[in-house]
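Internal QA ticket QA-208
Title: Verify multi-chain structure generation after dependency bump
Assignee: T.L.

Test input:
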Amino acid sequence: MFLNDRKFKILQAIVTDYIETAEPIGSRTIAKKYSLGISSATIRNEMSDLEDMGLIGQLHTSSGRVPSEKGYRFFVDSMMKSRALSVEEALFLQRMIIDNIGQAEYMIQETAKALSRLTKYPAIVSEPFLKKTTIKHIQLVPLDEKSLLLVLVTDTKTVKNQIVNLPSDTRSSGAPGYKALTKLSAVLNNHISGKSIRDISRDIIDKMLAEFGENAHVLMPVLGIIADMIKAEDDVRVYTSGIKNILAFPEFAEKSKAEAIFHALEDRESLFAILDQSKAHEGIQVIIGAENTLDLLKACSLIKANYTIDNGTGCIALIGPMRMDYTQAVSVLSGILQNMQQVIEALGLQAVKATT
Amino acid sequence: MFLNDRKFKILQAIVTDYIETAEPIGSRTIAKKYSLGISSATIRNEMSDLEDMGLIGQLHTSSGRVPSEKGYRFFVDSMMKSRALSVEEALFLQRMIIDNIGQAEYMIQETAKALSRLTKYPAIVSEPFLKKTTIKHIQLVPLDEKSLLLVLVTDTKTVKNQIVNLPSDTRSSGAPGYKALTKLSAVLNNHISGKSIRDISRDIIDKMLAEFGENAHVLMPVLGIIADMIKAEDDVRVYTSGIKNILAFPEFAEKSKAEAIFHALEDRESLFAILDQSKAHEGIQVIIGAENTLDLLKACSLIKANYTIDNGTGCIALIGPMRMDYTQAVSVLSGILQNMQQVIEALGLQAVKATT
DNA sequence: CGTTAGCACTCGACAGTGATGAGTGCTAAC
DNA sequence: GTTAGCACTCATCACTGTCGAGTGCTAACG
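Actual output:
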């Protein structure tokens, strides 16, 4: 699609103005507000052409014009200038990096918060979906005579821990002491470190049982919990932040519409459905209105990017009305991706594939 | 305040009906809906008396009557029958107990979720505020040559872990191996287990430095992170759930009102201000409208209870419009408190003080 | 031939109007 | 003491006319 310079500028004015004000915009307003050096009548003629091309529309005869989905698409593809982060945004992200040089899990939550705070749009961030989590390290820690603590480190440096309550029928033999536990930890690490849960064969279990000796009764509860933890780890979590921000948009003023969005963003299943769209896409992707496969989002736009850590890929996204500030949202999202890259590198994981 | 039987029943009818419908209720409706055996005219006379007593009011002449704050207070204090949990509610809680026999941290989050799901009101639950967290156990776990994992168990069985990145200038000496770390863990436990962060004196640090020997460079980073973790632990967290439910209430239909509530419930500071009201109160407490010290909540009611674990006390609360279903809310809250008690007992902590 | 001014037309927003109905308070009768 | 009846109040709703923003069309202008 080709537009002459004047049409280009008029469309740009309509889109940016509508993104800002959420009000249909008329020819006279454009003539006054944007000094294009032509009269409102001329603008009317051009607008009529733009309407024929399907780039703008009107809600009823004699209302101002509003960008159509095609118009937004044209704007995103051809008009949007990439914007540098503002000083405040850059500083905010910088501080976040410092706070996050800790653990991958927190980084993901914090990323969601930062995204929504910087953009005023609700943010969704999913943990990387890992095909096969493997055990990196196991440590048993004594608590008291009837329970002990199991700490599990996985190959992505996620750390999990859970209390193991020893079955009451074997409680008479009691929990092993500190020294015994370090020995048992060593046995566990020797046999199952580097393995995924499926790799633990009957054979390996038998060997470990023998080496556990008098503490054999501890092994099965421990293995059971390890299996649960790995399974929970394979269950990807999704974090959202700033959902309340949608109340600020007039397009969700109707309570039923706001409720629908709230519902979708608090429900795990629908969150996955939202993020699962076009999973293979590289770089930042903008999905406008009906381009969404979900009916619920046909009135919304979604800006999303996939990121990769080690052997898994996760997703990071912003949701807003179709009239969302694509320029800002894309630049912030891109900044955040670079941020994640730095944190991940600091954690010694493989870098995020970020393409802008 | 004393009411004769007829006035009592009429007030009860007005409160329960208004809680259900959110519409002012007139004399004729009461006469039809509740078979009190008297005509609407008589009811009108009685209502006039109730209005003089300040228990009900009307929005304008010739609107139906609405309970006043004093009316709600009278209802809660004198009319509310405690209700047994329904089968569904009881089952739901039972399942929750089973899922929660893990760790105190998750229990608190899950409690918030359960509360809001069962009542349809937003729920707030705070972690117990602990005066002085003490270290119960420390374990250092090897990760790779430049980092190790620190696991910390506190006296309330909260488990925290964080990766310790060794300073680069000492990286040449490398991270200690598995065996060395178990020895270092033992040193740490010998000296600071059972202590709070303030109890770690310069003297103790010097002793540990000596015992660490060639790995002395590891000690300070580790202690620094322990201090941070304990500090973070002393920072009580607050969880909310089901905030979106307020959209369902007509009293928050105005966007500005809903936004105010959302804002208050997403902001840590205001959450604490909400929960801090009448901290010393025992058992379940109902705070109605202007009884709230916060201006923001003057139009809301708050149902809250404090719970105690070991040396700390936390808070659990429901927020709703003044017209909230006190009967249901109180019974569910009381059920949840008993639930927490069971989980806490299973964890070996001291029981919740639940008084209903 | 592109641009512009002028004009008729459309339609949403808003304020004013009257009818309707739910509800009250008062009074008189039971 | 209780009830029926009646006048009165007030929110709600549908309807109406006015106003203004905006469009499309046409004719005139450079």
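Spot checks passed. Chain B touches chain A at residues 101-103, 136-137, 139, 141-144, 146-147, 149, 151, 153, 157, 159, 161-163, 165, 178, 182, 186, 189, 243-244, 247-248, 253, 255, 258-259, 262-263, 266, 346-348 (CB under 8 Å).
Status: verified.
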